[in-house]
Amino acid sequence: MTDAATAITGGASLSRFRPLAAPLAAAVFAAILVAVGPYLLGHYAINILIRAFFYAVVALTLDILWGYAGILTFGQAAFFGIGAYAAALIFTHLGFTTETIALAFLLAIVVPMICGLLVGWLSFYTGASPLYASVVSLAFPIVISQLIYSGGTFTGSSSGLVGYETFDIRTKTWFWIAGGGLVLAGTLLAVLMRSELGRLIVAVRDNETRLAYLGIDPNKVKIALTAGLAGIAGLAGLGYASFSGVVAPEITGFVFGTQLIIYVALGGRGTLIGPIVGTLGIELMSAYLSGDLPYVWQLIVGLVFVVVIIVMPKGLAPLLAGAVGRLLPLPRLASTARIVPATDPVATDKASIDIRDVTKSFGSLKVLQGIDLSIAGGELVSLVGPNGAGKTTLMRCLGDGAERSGGSVTIDGHDIGARPPHSIVGFGLGRKFQMATIFESLTVGESLRVARARIDGLSPVLPISDIALPATALAVMEATGLGDHLDREVRHLSHGQKQALELTMVLAMSPRVILLDEPTAGLTKVDRQRIGGALASLARDHGLAVILVEHDLDFVRTISSRVVVLHQGRILLDGTVDEVVHSELVKSVYSGAGHD
Fold this sequence. Notes:
By secondary structure, the chain is an alpha/beta fold. The protein has two domains: 19-252, no CATH class; 352-591, Rossmann fold, CATH 3.40.50. Helices cover 55% and strands 12% of the residues. It contains 24 helices and 14 strands. It has helices at 3-9, 21-40, 43-68, 76-93, 98-124, 130-149, 171-194, 196-206, 208-212, 218-244, 254-267, 273-292, 297-311, 317-327, 391-399, 421-424, 444-451, 453-456, 471-480, 495-508, 525-540, 553-559, 577-581, 584-591; strands at residues 161-162, 246-247, 338-341, 352-362, 365-376, 380-384, 406-411, 414-415, 429-432, 466-469, 513-517, 545-549, 562-567, 570-575. The chain has a six-stranded mixed beta sheet, sandwiched between helices. A four-stranded antiparallel beta sheet has the order 5-4-7-8, covered by helices on one side. The chain has a two-stranded antiparallel sheet with strand order 1-2. The longest helix has 27 residues, at 98-124.
Protein backbone atom coordinates (compact mmCIF):
# COMPACT_ATOMS: atom_id res chain seq x y z
CA MET A 1 0.00 0.00 0.00
CA THR A 2 1.36 3.46 -0.92
CA ASP A 3 1.78 6.31 1.54
CA ALA A 4 -1.13 8.17 -0.04
CA ALA A 5 -3.37 5.13 0.13
CA THR A 6 -2.33 4.57 3.72
CA ALA A 7 -3.39 8.10 4.64
CA ILE A 8 -6.71 7.82 2.85
CA THR A 9 -7.66 4.44 4.29
CA GLY A 10 -6.73 5.47 7.82
CA GLY A 11 -3.60 3.34 8.24
CA ALA A 12 -0.55 4.68 10.05
CA SER A 13 3.14 3.91 10.07
CA LEU A 14 5.05 3.73 13.32
CA SER A 15 6.54 7.17 12.64
CA ARG A 16 3.09 8.70 12.99
CA PHE A 17 3.06 7.75 16.68
CA ARG A 18 6.28 9.65 17.46
CA PRO A 19 4.48 12.82 18.64
CA LEU A 20 2.81 10.68 21.33
CA ALA A 21 6.15 9.74 22.87
CA ALA A 22 6.25 12.74 25.22
CA PRO A 23 2.81 12.29 26.85
CA LEU A 24 3.33 8.53 27.14
CA ALA A 25 6.72 9.04 28.78
CA ALA A 26 5.17 11.57 31.17
CA ALA A 27 2.41 9.04 31.96
CA VAL A 28 4.96 6.37 32.86
CA PHE A 29 6.83 8.81 35.13
CA ALA A 30 3.57 9.91 36.81
CA ALA A 31 2.48 6.30 37.30
CA ILE A 32 5.76 5.56 39.07
CA LEU A 33 5.20 8.52 41.41
CA VAL A 34 1.69 7.29 42.19
CA ALA A 35 2.96 3.76 42.82
CA VAL A 36 5.59 4.83 45.37
CA GLY A 37 3.55 7.70 46.87
CA PRO A 38 1.93 5.78 49.77
CA TYR A 39 5.37 4.64 50.95
CA LEU A 40 6.81 8.16 51.03
CA LEU A 41 3.90 10.26 52.34
CA GLY A 42 2.14 10.48 55.64
CA HIS A 43 -1.45 9.37 56.21
CA TYR A 44 -2.79 12.94 56.27
CA ALA A 45 -1.10 13.91 53.01
CA ILE A 46 -2.34 10.73 51.34
CA ASN A 47 -5.96 11.51 52.27
CA ILE A 48 -5.64 15.07 50.98
CA LEU A 49 -4.08 13.93 47.71
CA ILE A 50 -6.75 11.30 47.05
CA ARG A 51 -9.40 14.00 47.14
CA ALA A 52 -7.16 16.32 45.11
CA PHE A 53 -6.67 13.64 42.45
CA PHE A 54 -10.43 13.56 41.80
CA TYR A 55 -10.55 17.37 41.72
CA ALA A 56 -7.63 17.42 39.28
CA VAL A 57 -9.54 15.22 36.82
CA VAL A 58 -12.32 17.83 36.78
CA ALA A 59 -9.74 20.59 36.39
CA LEU A 60 -8.40 18.78 33.32
CA THR A 61 -11.85 18.84 31.72
CA LEU A 62 -12.06 22.56 32.41
CA ASP A 63 -8.64 23.05 30.84
CA ILE A 64 -9.81 21.40 27.62
CA LEU A 65 -12.85 23.69 27.51
CA TRP A 66 -11.18 26.92 28.59
CA GLY A 67 -7.53 26.50 27.69
CA TYR A 68 -7.96 24.79 24.33
CA ALA A 69 -11.51 25.46 23.08
CA GLY A 70 -11.77 28.96 24.57
CA ILE A 71 -14.96 28.23 26.55
CA LEU A 72 -14.82 29.68 30.07
CA THR A 73 -17.35 27.79 32.18
CA PHE A 74 -18.25 27.48 35.86
CA GLY A 75 -20.36 24.38 35.22
CA GLN A 76 -17.81 21.59 35.64
CA ALA A 77 -18.41 21.58 39.40
CA ALA A 78 -22.08 20.77 38.80
CA PHE A 79 -21.23 17.79 36.58
CA PHE A 80 -18.78 16.56 39.23
CA GLY A 81 -21.47 16.93 41.91
CA ILE A 82 -24.09 15.13 39.79
CA GLY A 83 -21.78 12.14 39.46
CA ALA A 84 -21.07 12.17 43.20
CA TYR A 85 -24.74 12.39 44.12
CA ALA A 86 -25.63 9.65 41.62
CA ALA A 87 -23.46 7.24 43.62
CA ALA A 88 -24.47 8.53 47.05
CA LEU A 89 -28.22 8.46 46.30
CA ILE A 90 -28.10 4.92 44.91
CA PHE A 91 -25.97 3.56 47.74
CA THR A 92 -28.17 5.33 50.32
CA HIS A 93 -31.60 4.34 48.98
CA LEU A 94 -30.96 1.14 47.01
CA GLY A 95 -28.13 -0.40 48.97
CA PHE A 96 -24.63 -1.46 48.02
CA THR A 97 -24.67 -4.46 45.69
CA THR A 98 -23.06 -5.45 42.41
CA GLU A 99 -26.15 -4.26 40.55
CA THR A 100 -26.32 -0.90 42.29
CA ILE A 101 -22.59 -0.35 41.77
CA ALA A 102 -23.06 -0.91 38.04
CA LEU A 103 -26.09 1.42 38.07
CA ALA A 104 -24.13 4.09 39.92
CA PHE A 105 -21.33 3.95 37.35
CA LEU A 106 -23.83 4.20 34.51
CA LEU A 107 -25.75 7.13 35.96
CA ALA A 108 -22.60 8.97 37.07
CA ILE A 109 -21.56 9.13 33.41
CA VAL A 110 -24.86 9.29 31.53
CA VAL A 111 -26.72 11.86 33.65
CA PRO A 112 -23.90 14.45 33.54
CA MET A 113 -23.59 13.88 29.79
CA ILE A 114 -27.32 14.48 29.28
CA CYS A 115 -27.05 17.63 31.39
CA GLY A 116 -23.98 18.58 29.37
CA LEU A 117 -25.95 18.26 26.15
CA LEU A 118 -28.65 20.50 27.59
CA VAL A 119 -26.18 23.08 28.87
CA GLY A 120 -24.25 22.95 25.59
CA TRP A 121 -27.39 23.45 23.52
CA LEU A 122 -28.54 26.36 25.67
CA SER A 123 -25.09 27.92 25.51
CA PHE A 124 -24.13 27.40 21.88
CA TYR A 125 -27.26 27.05 19.80
CA THR A 126 -27.15 29.14 16.63
CA GLY A 127 -27.58 32.79 17.53
CA ALA A 128 -26.49 32.52 21.18
CA SER A 129 -23.87 35.06 22.24
CA PRO A 130 -20.75 34.30 24.33
CA LEU A 131 -22.29 36.35 27.14
CA TYR A 132 -25.35 34.10 27.13
CA ALA A 133 -23.11 31.03 27.34
CA SER A 134 -21.37 32.50 30.39
CA VAL A 135 -24.72 33.20 32.06
CA VAL A 136 -25.84 29.60 31.47
CA SER A 137 -22.62 28.23 32.98
CA LEU A 138 -23.09 30.49 36.01
CA ALA A 139 -26.73 29.56 36.49
CA PHE A 140 -26.40 25.79 36.05
CA PRO A 141 -24.44 25.08 39.30
CA ILE A 142 -26.86 27.30 41.21
CA VAL A 143 -29.84 25.36 39.83
CA ILE A 144 -28.29 21.99 40.73
CA SER A 145 -27.45 23.19 44.25
CA GLN A 146 -31.00 24.44 44.80
CA LEU A 147 -32.44 21.13 43.62
CA ILE A 148 -30.31 19.35 46.22
CA TYR A 149 -31.30 21.81 48.95
CA SER A 150 -34.98 21.29 48.14
CA GLY A 151 -34.69 17.49 48.02
CA GLY A 152 -35.38 17.02 51.72
CA THR A 153 -34.40 13.67 53.19
CA PHE A 154 -33.97 12.18 49.72
CA THR A 155 -30.92 14.33 48.89
CA GLY A 156 -30.03 15.22 52.47
CA SER A 157 -30.75 18.90 51.80
CA SER A 158 -28.09 21.21 53.27
CA SER A 159 -26.60 18.39 55.38
CA GLY A 160 -25.86 16.23 52.37
CA LEU A 161 -25.66 12.44 52.44
CA VAL A 162 -23.38 10.60 54.84
CA GLY A 163 -22.99 7.12 56.25
CA TYR A 164 -23.92 5.20 53.12
CA GLU A 165 -22.12 1.93 52.49
CA THR A 166 -19.27 2.13 50.00
CA PHE A 167 -16.19 0.21 48.92
CA ASP A 168 -14.16 -1.33 51.77
CA ILE A 169 -10.75 -0.40 50.43
CA ARG A 170 -7.59 0.62 52.24
CA THR A 171 -6.46 4.22 51.97
CA LYS A 172 -3.28 3.16 50.18
CA THR A 173 -5.34 1.37 47.54
CA TRP A 174 -7.57 4.42 47.13
CA PHE A 175 -4.43 6.47 46.51
CA TRP A 176 -3.47 4.13 43.68
CA ILE A 177 -7.00 4.11 42.23
CA ALA A 178 -7.44 7.88 42.34
CA GLY A 179 -3.88 8.60 41.20
CA GLY A 180 -4.10 6.00 38.46
CA GLY A 181 -7.40 7.49 37.30
CA LEU A 182 -5.79 10.92 37.09
CA VAL A 183 -2.81 9.56 35.14
CA LEU A 184 -5.17 7.74 32.76
CA ALA A 185 -7.40 10.80 32.26
CA GLY A 186 -4.41 13.08 31.72
CA THR A 187 -2.83 10.69 29.23
CA LEU A 188 -6.00 10.18 27.21
CA LEU A 189 -6.69 13.91 27.06
CA ALA A 190 -3.07 14.63 26.12
CA VAL A 191 -3.32 12.10 23.27
CA LEU A 192 -6.62 13.67 22.21
CA MET A 193 -5.20 17.19 22.09
CA ARG A 194 -2.18 16.05 20.03
CA SER A 195 -4.46 14.24 17.59
CA GLU A 196 -6.16 15.52 14.45
CA LEU A 197 -9.40 15.98 16.38
CA GLY A 198 -7.54 17.94 19.04
CA ARG A 199 -6.41 20.41 16.39
CA LEU A 200 -10.06 20.93 15.49
CA ILE A 201 -10.82 21.81 19.12
CA VAL A 202 -8.12 24.49 19.04
CA ALA A 203 -9.49 25.73 15.71
CA VAL A 204 -12.85 26.35 17.43
CA ARG A 205 -11.12 28.80 19.75
CA ASP A 206 -9.16 30.49 16.97
CA ASN A 207 -11.79 31.11 14.30
CA GLU A 208 -15.35 29.79 14.31
CA THR A 209 -16.21 31.67 11.11
CA ARG A 210 -13.54 29.90 9.11
CA LEU A 211 -14.64 26.54 10.54
CA ALA A 212 -18.19 27.20 9.38
CA TYR A 213 -16.95 27.95 5.87
CA LEU A 214 -14.99 24.69 5.95
CA GLY A 215 -18.27 22.83 6.38
CA ILE A 216 -17.95 22.25 10.14
CA ASP A 217 -20.56 23.46 12.62
CA PRO A 218 -18.52 24.91 15.54
CA ASN A 219 -21.60 24.88 17.78
CA LYS A 220 -21.96 21.12 17.40
CA VAL A 221 -18.30 20.68 18.25
CA LYS A 222 -18.70 22.72 21.43
CA ILE A 223 -21.89 20.92 22.45
CA ALA A 224 -20.31 17.49 21.92
CA LEU A 225 -17.19 18.57 23.82
CA THR A 226 -19.25 19.89 26.74
CA ALA A 227 -21.23 16.63 26.97
CA GLY A 228 -18.20 14.35 26.70
CA LEU A 229 -16.19 16.21 29.33
CA ALA A 230 -19.25 16.33 31.61
CA GLY A 231 -19.21 12.52 31.63
CA ILE A 232 -15.55 12.48 32.70
CA ALA A 233 -16.27 14.99 35.47
CA GLY A 234 -19.23 12.89 36.63
CA LEU A 235 -17.04 9.77 36.81
CA ALA A 236 -14.55 11.70 38.97
CA GLY A 237 -17.47 12.69 41.21
CA LEU A 238 -18.44 9.04 41.64
CA GLY A 239 -14.89 8.23 42.73
CA TYR A 240 -14.93 11.11 45.21
CA ALA A 241 -18.26 10.03 46.74
CA SER A 242 -17.15 6.41 46.97
CA PHE A 243 -13.92 7.35 48.74
CA SER A 244 -15.20 10.03 51.11
CA GLY A 245 -18.50 8.41 52.12
CA VAL A 246 -20.10 11.84 52.24
CA VAL A 247 -21.43 14.36 49.72
CA ALA A 248 -22.68 17.90 50.29
CA PRO A 249 -24.31 20.54 48.05
CA GLU A 250 -21.13 22.62 48.09
CA ILE A 251 -19.41 20.30 45.60
CA THR A 252 -22.00 21.20 42.94
CA GLY A 253 -21.97 24.95 43.44
CA PHE A 254 -20.60 28.13 41.97
CA VAL A 255 -17.87 28.48 44.63
CA PHE A 256 -16.30 25.14 43.78
CA GLY A 257 -16.64 26.00 40.09
CA THR A 258 -14.65 29.16 40.74
CA GLN A 259 -12.01 27.19 42.64
CA LEU A 260 -11.54 24.96 39.61
CA ILE A 261 -10.94 28.04 37.47
CA ILE A 262 -8.31 29.19 39.97
CA TYR A 263 -6.62 25.78 39.85
CA VAL A 264 -6.40 25.95 36.06
CA ALA A 265 -5.35 29.61 35.87
CA LEU A 266 -2.68 29.20 38.54
CA GLY A 267 -1.21 26.07 37.01
CA GLY A 268 -1.45 27.32 33.43
CA ARG A 269 -4.39 26.82 31.11
CA GLY A 270 -3.96 25.12 27.80
CA THR A 271 -1.15 22.92 29.16
CA LEU A 272 -2.89 19.93 30.85
CA ILE A 273 0.00 19.56 33.31
CA GLY A 274 -0.73 23.02 34.72
CA PRO A 275 -4.21 22.23 36.11
CA ILE A 276 -2.84 19.11 37.81
CA VAL A 277 -0.01 21.08 39.44
CA GLY A 278 -2.38 23.89 40.42
CA THR A 279 -4.97 21.57 41.95
CA LEU A 280 -2.56 19.41 43.93
CA GLY A 281 -0.51 22.38 45.08
CA ILE A 282 -3.44 24.48 46.28
CA GLU A 283 -5.18 21.53 47.96
CA LEU A 284 -2.04 20.53 49.86
CA MET A 285 -1.17 24.10 50.81
CA SER A 286 -4.73 24.83 51.92
CA ALA A 287 -4.92 21.66 54.00
CA TYR A 288 -1.78 22.45 55.99
CA LEU A 289 -2.34 26.20 56.26
CA SER A 290 -5.93 25.78 57.45
CA GLY A 291 -4.59 23.88 60.46
CA ASP A 292 -1.60 26.08 61.25
CA LEU A 293 -3.13 29.44 60.28
CA PRO A 294 -6.90 28.93 60.54
CA TYR A 295 -7.83 32.59 60.13
CA VAL A 296 -5.49 33.78 57.39
CA TRP A 297 -4.83 30.75 55.20
CA GLN A 298 -7.37 31.75 52.56
CA LEU A 299 -5.80 35.21 52.37
CA ILE A 300 -2.39 33.63 51.81
CA VAL A 301 -3.70 31.38 49.07
CA GLY A 302 -5.40 34.38 47.45
CA LEU A 303 -2.22 36.46 47.56
CA VAL A 304 -0.22 33.64 45.99
CA PHE A 305 -2.79 33.40 43.21
CA VAL A 306 -2.70 37.15 42.53
CA VAL A 307 1.10 37.28 42.50
CA VAL A 308 1.41 34.32 40.14
CA ILE A 309 -1.21 35.69 37.74
CA ILE A 310 0.49 39.13 37.65
CA VAL A 311 4.08 37.87 37.38
CA MET A 312 3.32 34.77 35.27
CA PRO A 313 0.06 35.33 33.34
CA LYS A 314 0.39 31.89 31.73
CA GLY A 315 0.63 30.18 35.12
CA LEU A 316 3.28 27.93 36.58
CA ALA A 317 3.36 25.39 33.76
CA PRO A 318 5.79 27.28 31.46
CA LEU A 319 8.18 27.73 34.38
CA LEU A 320 8.04 24.02 35.19
CA ALA A 321 8.42 23.08 31.53
CA GLY A 322 11.51 25.26 31.25
CA ALA A 323 13.06 23.65 34.32
CA VAL A 324 12.37 20.15 33.05
CA GLY A 325 13.72 21.08 29.63
CA ARG A 326 17.00 22.25 31.16
CA LEU A 327 17.36 19.14 33.30
CA LEU A 328 16.22 16.67 30.66
CA PRO A 329 16.55 18.15 27.16
CA LEU A 330 14.62 16.17 24.56
CA PRO A 331 15.47 16.03 20.84
CA ARG A 332 13.04 17.78 18.53
CA LEU A 333 11.04 15.23 16.57
CA ALA A 334 10.69 15.65 12.83
CA SER A 335 7.16 16.37 11.67
CA THR A 336 5.13 13.56 10.14
CA ALA A 337 2.93 15.98 8.13
CA ARG A 338 3.19 15.45 4.39
CA ILE A 339 1.15 16.61 1.38
CA VAL A 340 -0.22 13.91 -0.93
CA PRO A 341 -2.64 14.11 -3.88
CA ALA A 342 -6.30 13.62 -2.98
CA THR A 343 -8.52 11.06 -4.67
CA ASP A 344 -11.77 13.03 -4.47
CA PRO A 345 -14.38 11.97 -7.02
CA VAL A 346 -14.47 14.21 -10.08
CA ALA A 347 -17.83 15.93 -10.61
CA THR A 348 -19.25 15.25 -14.06
CA ASP A 349 -21.80 18.07 -14.15
CA LYS A 350 -20.80 21.66 -14.81
CA ALA A 351 -20.43 23.96 -11.83
CA SER A 352 -22.86 26.85 -11.63
CA ILE A 353 -24.36 29.45 -9.34
CA ASP A 354 -27.65 31.18 -10.13
CA ILE A 355 -28.71 34.36 -8.34
CA ARG A 356 -32.31 35.49 -8.78
CA ASP A 357 -33.82 38.77 -7.54
CA VAL A 358 -31.58 38.88 -4.45
CA THR A 359 -32.29 41.79 -2.12
CA LYS A 360 -30.81 42.92 1.16
CA SER A 361 -32.28 45.59 3.40
CA PHE A 362 -31.45 47.05 6.76
CA GLY A 363 -34.78 48.51 7.77
CA SER A 364 -35.66 51.07 5.11
CA LEU A 365 -32.12 51.07 3.71
CA LYS A 366 -31.88 48.87 0.61
CA VAL A 367 -28.31 47.67 0.10
CA LEU A 368 -29.06 45.20 -2.71
CA GLN A 369 -31.97 45.44 -5.11
CA GLY A 370 -33.02 42.76 -7.60
CA ILE A 371 -29.64 41.17 -8.30
CA ASP A 372 -29.85 38.62 -11.14
CA LEU A 373 -26.68 36.81 -12.13
CA SER A 374 -25.66 33.40 -13.47
CA ILE A 375 -22.09 32.06 -13.49
CA ALA A 376 -21.06 28.74 -15.00
CA GLY A 377 -18.01 26.57 -14.49
CA GLY A 378 -14.97 27.89 -16.31
CA GLU A 379 -15.94 31.53 -15.75
CA LEU A 380 -14.13 33.99 -13.52
CA VAL A 381 -16.54 36.85 -12.97
CA SER A 382 -15.22 39.95 -11.22
CA LEU A 383 -17.52 42.20 -9.19
CA VAL A 384 -16.38 45.81 -9.27
CA GLY A 385 -17.92 49.06 -8.22
CA PRO A 386 -17.48 52.10 -5.99
CA ASN A 387 -17.36 51.95 -2.22
CA GLY A 388 -20.78 51.05 -0.83
CA ALA A 389 -21.97 49.44 -4.05
CA GLY A 390 -22.90 46.23 -2.19
CA LYS A 391 -20.17 43.86 -3.40
CA THR A 392 -19.22 42.36 -0.03
CA THR A 393 -22.87 42.32 1.03
CA LEU A 394 -23.66 40.22 -2.04
CA MET A 395 -20.88 37.81 -1.11
CA ARG A 396 -22.36 37.41 2.37
CA CYS A 397 -25.79 36.69 0.83
CA LEU A 398 -24.28 33.96 -1.35
CA GLY A 399 -22.42 32.27 1.51
CA ASP A 400 -25.04 32.52 4.26
CA GLY A 401 -28.71 31.84 3.59
CA ALA A 402 -29.81 33.94 6.55
CA GLU A 403 -28.26 37.11 5.11
CA ARG A 404 -30.71 37.69 2.24
CA SER A 405 -33.87 39.71 2.64
CA GLY A 406 -35.34 38.21 -0.53
CA GLY A 407 -34.64 36.28 -3.70
CA SER A 408 -32.97 32.90 -4.23
CA VAL A 409 -29.48 31.48 -4.66
CA THR A 410 -28.90 28.10 -6.30
CA ILE A 411 -25.55 26.30 -6.29
CA ASP A 412 -25.22 23.36 -8.68
CA GLY A 413 -29.00 22.97 -8.62
CA HIS A 414 -29.31 23.21 -4.82
CA ASP A 415 -31.34 26.10 -3.43
CA ILE A 416 -29.45 27.28 -0.34
CA GLY A 417 -32.64 28.61 1.27
CA ALA A 418 -31.89 29.99 4.73
CA ARG A 419 -29.15 27.46 5.48
CA PRO A 420 -26.07 28.44 7.52
CA PRO A 421 -22.59 28.49 5.91
CA HIS A 422 -21.48 25.06 7.16
CA SER A 423 -24.48 23.51 5.41
CA ILE A 424 -24.08 25.48 2.16
CA VAL A 425 -20.47 24.34 1.89
CA GLY A 426 -21.83 20.84 1.32
CA PHE A 427 -23.26 22.03 -2.01
CA GLY A 428 -19.77 22.83 -3.25
CA LEU A 429 -19.27 26.44 -2.11
CA GLY A 430 -15.98 27.87 -0.88
CA ARG A 431 -15.42 31.40 0.38
CA LYS A 432 -12.29 33.43 0.97
CA PHE A 433 -12.53 36.67 2.93
CA GLN A 434 -10.75 39.98 2.37
CA MET A 435 -8.88 39.65 5.65
CA ALA A 436 -7.50 36.13 5.90
CA THR A 437 -9.62 34.04 8.29
CA ILE A 438 -7.18 31.43 9.55
CA PHE A 439 -6.18 29.51 12.68
CA GLU A 440 -3.36 31.48 14.25
CA SER A 441 -2.43 28.81 16.83
CA LEU A 442 -2.12 25.93 14.35
CA THR A 443 0.67 25.12 11.95
CA VAL A 444 0.16 25.31 8.20
CA GLY A 445 -0.10 21.52 8.00
CA GLU A 446 -2.60 21.32 10.85
CA SER A 447 -4.72 24.04 9.25
CA LEU A 448 -4.85 22.15 5.97
CA ARG A 449 -5.75 18.91 7.75
CA VAL A 450 -8.63 20.63 9.53
CA ALA A 451 -9.75 22.00 6.17
CA ARG A 452 -10.09 18.40 4.95
CA ALA A 453 -12.07 17.26 8.00
CA ARG A 454 -15.46 17.29 6.26
CA ILE A 455 -14.14 14.97 3.56
CA ASP A 456 -11.57 12.74 5.28
CA GLY A 457 -12.70 12.88 8.91
CA LEU A 458 -10.33 13.35 11.86
CA SER A 459 -8.69 10.79 14.13
CA PRO A 460 -9.16 11.29 17.91
CA VAL A 461 -5.90 9.44 18.56
CA LEU A 462 -3.43 9.80 15.70
CA PRO A 463 -1.47 13.04 15.13
CA ILE A 464 -1.37 14.82 11.76
CA SER A 465 0.21 12.71 9.05
CA ASP A 466 -0.46 12.73 5.32
CA ILE A 467 -2.66 15.61 4.14
CA ALA A 468 -4.57 14.82 0.96
CA LEU A 469 -5.13 17.89 -1.24
CA PRO A 470 -6.85 18.21 -4.62
CA ALA A 471 -5.02 19.48 -7.69
CA THR A 472 -6.36 23.03 -7.30
CA ALA A 473 -4.95 23.37 -3.78
CA LEU A 474 -1.65 21.77 -4.80
CA ALA A 475 -1.33 24.31 -7.61
CA VAL A 476 -1.69 27.25 -5.20
CA MET A 477 0.82 25.72 -2.77
CA GLU A 478 3.33 25.26 -5.56
CA ALA A 479 2.81 28.77 -6.89
CA THR A 480 3.22 30.39 -3.48
CA GLY A 481 5.82 28.08 -1.90
CA LEU A 482 3.52 27.34 1.02
CA GLY A 483 4.53 23.68 1.05
CA ASP A 484 7.90 24.64 2.55
CA HIS A 485 6.22 25.90 5.74
CA LEU A 486 4.04 22.97 6.88
CA ASP A 487 5.49 22.99 10.41
CA ARG A 488 5.37 26.75 10.84
CA GLU A 489 2.76 28.32 13.10
CA VAL A 490 0.31 30.41 11.12
CA ARG A 491 0.82 33.44 13.36
CA HIS A 492 4.41 33.66 12.10
CA LEU A 493 3.51 33.74 8.40
CA SER A 494 3.75 36.86 6.28
CA HIS A 495 0.59 38.60 5.10
CA GLY A 496 0.92 37.10 1.63
CA GLN A 497 1.47 33.61 3.03
CA LYS A 498 -1.64 33.92 5.19
CA GLN A 499 -3.69 34.92 2.16
CA ALA A 500 -2.31 31.97 0.24
CA LEU A 501 -3.02 29.61 3.15
CA GLU A 502 -6.65 30.67 3.38
CA LEU A 503 -7.12 30.17 -0.35
CA THR A 504 -5.49 26.73 -0.12
CA MET A 505 -7.76 25.79 2.79
CA VAL A 506 -10.80 26.77 0.73
CA LEU A 507 -9.60 24.74 -2.25
CA ALA A 508 -8.79 21.76 0.00
CA MET A 509 -12.54 21.10 0.24
CA SER A 510 -12.75 20.58 -3.55
CA PRO A 511 -15.40 23.31 -4.03
CA ARG A 512 -17.20 23.87 -7.33
CA VAL A 513 -18.07 27.53 -6.75
CA ILE A 514 -15.63 29.95 -5.07
CA LEU A 515 -16.27 33.40 -3.62
CA LEU A 516 -13.15 35.55 -3.34
CA ASP A 517 -13.30 38.93 -1.58
CA GLU A 518 -10.20 40.94 -2.57
CA PRO A 519 -7.81 37.96 -2.25
CA THR A 520 -4.79 40.09 -3.19
CA ALA A 521 -5.46 42.97 -0.77
CA GLY A 522 -2.21 44.18 0.77
CA LEU A 523 0.01 41.87 -1.28
CA THR A 524 3.18 42.82 -3.09
CA LYS A 525 3.19 43.00 -6.88
CA VAL A 526 4.97 39.63 -7.10
CA ASP A 527 2.47 37.94 -4.77
CA ARG A 528 -0.44 39.50 -6.68
CA GLN A 529 0.86 38.04 -9.93
CA ARG A 530 1.26 34.61 -8.35
CA ILE A 531 -2.22 34.60 -6.81
CA GLY A 532 -3.73 36.08 -9.96
CA GLY A 533 -2.29 33.31 -12.11
CA ALA A 534 -3.57 30.68 -9.69
CA LEU A 535 -7.08 32.22 -9.67
CA ALA A 536 -7.28 32.31 -13.45
CA SER A 537 -6.22 28.67 -13.55
CA LEU A 538 -9.05 27.65 -11.21
CA ALA A 539 -11.64 28.64 -13.80
CA ARG A 540 -9.70 27.99 -17.00
CA ASP A 541 -8.01 24.68 -16.17
CA HIS A 542 -10.24 23.21 -13.45
CA GLY A 543 -13.71 24.33 -14.52
CA LEU A 544 -14.66 26.13 -11.30
CA ALA A 545 -17.16 28.98 -11.14
CA VAL A 546 -15.27 31.87 -9.55
CA ILE A 547 -16.72 35.16 -8.27
CA LEU A 548 -14.08 37.74 -7.45
CA VAL A 549 -14.61 41.04 -5.65
CA GLU A 550 -11.89 43.45 -6.71
CA HIS A 551 -11.36 47.20 -7.11
CA ASP A 552 -8.18 47.13 -9.19
CA LEU A 553 -9.41 47.24 -12.82
CA ASP A 554 -5.92 46.52 -14.15
CA PHE A 555 -5.79 43.30 -12.12
CA VAL A 556 -9.36 42.41 -13.13
CA ARG A 557 -8.53 42.92 -16.81
CA THR A 558 -5.78 40.29 -16.79
CA ILE A 559 -7.74 37.38 -15.25
CA SER A 560 -11.49 37.90 -15.74
CA SER A 561 -13.78 36.33 -18.33
CA ARG A 562 -16.62 38.71 -17.39
CA VAL A 563 -16.99 41.82 -15.28
CA VAL A 564 -20.11 42.84 -13.35
CA VAL A 565 -20.34 46.44 -12.19
CA LEU A 566 -22.43 47.15 -9.08
CA HIS A 567 -23.67 50.63 -8.21
CA GLN A 568 -26.02 51.57 -5.38
CA GLY A 569 -27.07 47.94 -4.89
CA ARG A 570 -27.93 47.25 -8.52
CA ILE A 571 -26.12 45.69 -11.49
CA LEU A 572 -25.04 48.58 -13.67
CA LEU A 573 -23.32 46.54 -16.35
CA ASP A 574 -22.56 42.86 -17.05
CA GLY A 575 -20.18 42.37 -19.92
CA THR A 576 -16.75 41.50 -21.16
CA VAL A 577 -13.63 43.13 -19.80
CA ASP A 578 -13.33 45.45 -22.81
CA GLU A 579 -16.99 46.48 -22.63
CA VAL A 580 -16.63 47.47 -18.99
CA VAL A 581 -13.25 49.15 -19.31
CA HIS A 582 -14.39 51.32 -22.22
CA SER A 583 -17.86 52.06 -20.87
CA GLU A 584 -18.49 55.78 -20.44
CA LEU A 585 -21.19 54.97 -17.87
CA VAL A 586 -18.71 53.05 -15.72
CA LYS A 587 -16.15 55.83 -16.02
CA SER A 588 -18.70 58.37 -14.84
CA VAL A 589 -19.62 56.20 -11.85
CA TYR A 590 -15.97 55.75 -10.83
CA SER A 591 -15.17 59.41 -11.32
CA GLY A 592 -17.90 60.33 -8.84
CA ALA A 593 -17.12 57.82 -6.08
CA GLY A 594 -14.14 56.33 -4.27
CA HIS A 595 -13.00 52.76 -4.78
CA ASP A 596 -13.34 49.85 -2.31
